[in-house]
């Protein structure tokens, strides 16, 4: 009579059920942190903070996150890292890490759930999945953000698309504030630029993706030592940042400066593919893209654009990082708001008049140029002429090499610009 239970136990040990396997495994996985009970300074309820400052903000579109909440039965929220017009980003502890190993942290991007944001999030998710799988062995993949996991999060007002990434440190615009004059010195900018171009080469040649929105917000620096993430999480437990508490949610402040020295900065990583497109779907695109002062001329003139818009965009960004302002930035004393006319005027001042064949190709050229290619708003053209007269921060041979490097990207005709792979062998990038 006693042998039957023993036989049944042996069967269970030899062939455990899925639920028993998970229960045993769960015993050895990390446990969630308990919610700490510490005093918290409260922010005024009437003053907008963080995502509440986004244009067209609506609380029903943003998930009402709470610290130490566990998402998807796996990711426990530890701190807020940042926010955007259609998402918030959170540091989370991965509870699927074995409990005897150091804590493993990830960044969870929680997208807004209104139609436009959800559609963009789903597009970004599909593109990021494609980028992650395209060619794992290509060197440029190291400089592009790839996906660890994704899931849907059900909130009180709808479903939110969530994407899980390796945590990164700070964007380029924040990095340059660490240096004198709030610009990147040439010896720092050179390796950063080279690695960004490696990433762009991966996007273009392996993924066949056009980013369309390269700016200092969308290039983040990686961490060399991920142990700092545990310190960030512990700081939030011991000394939580002020919070704004409302009836249905809490608005947290972001911990986006980890206080690490420059020597702890890792590689640059291209992020945010919400506005990216497949480069081979059409011969060219025509819809409006890019930050205002970074916009390529073929976008304004409606000539049709493709991969080379990213090259133009990158050239303006690199100049901005070195000089402290973009080459086509409009002076506030002349024009307080961006316009296509003023932007084209600045391009003419620095690159000369556009080629007539390009104007003939543009569907919108007639708004800005006559049939002979004359600009209709000559009074807007700045007096300073040529890129060489605008560059003031470097001298000598390096100045000549940098101007040659930038001129390979800032060309009126898209076909006249070097591609990412060609740029990698440039003398200025190579430091020779």
Automatic annotation (TrEMBL):
Q: Which family does it belong to?
A: Belongs to the protein kinase superfamily.
- A GO MF term: ATP binding
Q: Which GO terms describe its cellular component?
A: cytoplasm; nucleus
Q: Supply the EC number(s).
A: 2.7.11.1
Q: What is this protein called?
A: non-specific serine/threonine protein kinase
PROSITE patterns linked: PROTEIN_KINASE_ATP, PROTEIN_KINASE_DOM, PROTEIN_KINASE_ST
- Per the database record, which ranges form the Protein kinase domain? 75-429
Q: Which InterPro entries match?
A: Kinase-like_dom_sf, Prot_kinase_dom, Protein_kinase_ATP_BS, Ser/Thr_kinase_AS, SRPK
Q: Which UniProt keywords are present, listed alphabetically?
A: ATP-binding, Kinase, Nucleotide-binding, Serine/threonine-protein kinase, Transferase
Q: Which reaction does it catalyse?
A: L-threonyl-[protein] + ATP = O-phospho-L-threonyl-[protein] + ADP + H(+); L-seryl-[protein] + ATP = O-phospho-L-seryl-[protein] + ADP + H(+)
Where does the chain bind ATP?
A: 109
GO:BP terms for this protein?
A: regulation of mRNA processing; spliceosomal complex assembly
User: What domain of life does the UniProt record list for this protein's source?
Assistant: Eukaryota
User: Which top EC class applies here?
Assistant: transferase
